[in-house]
């Protein structure tokens, strides 16, 4: 079964920052960071960036959790961001911004936003576990100071902090807080935020993407979209065209790979598969360890099955 190749989506722009979209929608790839012995493998990263641009994705995220940003220093994060921006060709790029020292986060925010970003993806401060008032103050402080819009990153299993529904709806009133990457694991909260309409909701848990799109979510930020990104684009476009049966068919074909990519800690399985496909080295930053050989064999078999069903155009 072959797929029709679709052109890359053209993001709406503002004159002051050509790479900044008016909205966050569609398929976004949260890029892995290829490493070699010296640091980020920038040639491999540029190849990946060109590839996803050609697949028609709507945007890229740099230095998120899949990008192992927590294991990188500020210089490495900046050279990684600059390498992606140099190859993005006008495709919107969002930068991850995480931390638990608010003044330092604000300082790094100013550095990052000196680049032509579409936005910042920012989670709750990790480890300190602030209450709801503290979380609201933190996100408002970042939004007030930011030259670009914020995408809130609700991922309590990494941060230890739950952003409650009322807090999200209150933050939706800030003109510089535009969207949320939803990894909260609470369908009631997801539904309430979508129904409210003040924030665009991007699915962050890969297996939940079709359900969130069906409820009215604006798109997805999916680590699994590194593999056959063209099919994720086709699935999203089918949902937009109300071709639900086609979208469901593609989703179910992708689901086995999605499950396997998170069977061990991300991005180990993903990097292992990409390495077998010749995109990059499998190297991860300690304390992350490579995926098991048994899991990589399962991933390769699942990918081969997907290729038989949907040959690359």
From TrEMBL:
Catalyses which reaction(s): L-aspartate 4-semialdehyde + pyruvate = (2S,4S)-4-hydroxy-2,3,4,5-tetrahydrodipicolinate + H2O + H(+)
Pathway: Amino-acid biosynthesis; L-lysine biosynthesis via DAP pathway; (S)-tetrahydrodipicolinate from L-aspartate: step 3/4
Domain of life according to the entry: Bacteria
One of the protein's GO biological processes: lysine biosynthetic process via diaminopimelate
Annotated organism of origin: Bordetella trematum
Family: Belongs to the DapA family.
Keywords tagged on the record: Amino-acid biosynthesis, Cytoplasm, Diaminopimelate biosynthesis, Lyase, Lysine biosynthesis, Schiff base
Function of the molecule: Catalyzes the condensation of (S)-aspartate-beta-semialdehyde [(S)-ASA] and pyruvate to 4-hydroxy-tetrahydrodipicolinate (HTPA).
Active-site feature positions: 153 (proton donor/acceptor), 181 (schiff-base intermediate with substrate)
Protein name stated in the entry: 4-hydroxy-tetrahydrodipicolinate synthase
Positions bound to pyruvate: 66, 221
């Amino acid at each position: 079964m072959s797929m029709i190749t679709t052109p890359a989506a053209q993001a709406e722009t503002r004159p002051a920052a050509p790479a900044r979209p008016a909205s966050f929608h569609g398929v976004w790839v949260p890029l892995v960071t290829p490493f070699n012995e010296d640091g980020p493998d920038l040639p491999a990263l540029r190849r990946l960036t060109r590839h996803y641009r050609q697949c028609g994705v709507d945007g890229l995220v740099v230095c998120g959790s899949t990008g192992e940003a927590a294991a990188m220093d500020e210089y490495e994060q900046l050279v990684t961001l600059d390498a992606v921006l140099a190859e993005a060709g006008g495709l919107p790029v969002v930068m991850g911004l995480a931390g638990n020292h608010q003044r330092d986060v604000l300082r790094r925010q100013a550095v990052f936003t000196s680049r032509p970003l579409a936005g910042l993806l920012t989670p709750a401060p990790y480890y300190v576990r602030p209450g709801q008032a503290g979380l609201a103050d933190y996100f408002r402080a970042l939004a007030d100071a930011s030259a670009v819009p914020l995408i809130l990153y609700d991922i309590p299993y990494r941060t230890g902090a739950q952003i409650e529904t009322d807090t999200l709806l209150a933050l939706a009133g800030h003109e510089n807080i535009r969207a949320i990457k939803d990894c909260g694991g609470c369908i009631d909260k997801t539904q309430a935020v979508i129904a409210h309409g003040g924030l665009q909701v991007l699915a962050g848990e890969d297996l939940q993407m079709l359900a969130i799109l069906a409820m009215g979510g604006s798109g997805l930020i999916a680590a699994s979209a590194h593999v056959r990104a063209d099919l994720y684009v086709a699935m999203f476009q089918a949902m937009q065209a109300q071709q639900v049966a086609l979208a469901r068919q593609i989703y179910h074909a992708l689901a086995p790979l999605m499950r396997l990519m998170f069977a061990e800690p991300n991005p180990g399985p993903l990097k292992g598969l990409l390495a077998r496909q010749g995109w990059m080295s499998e190297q991860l930053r300690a304390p992350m360890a490579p995926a098991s050989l048994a899991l990589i064999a399962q991933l390769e078999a699942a990918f081969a099955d997907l290729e038989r069903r949907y040959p690359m155009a």
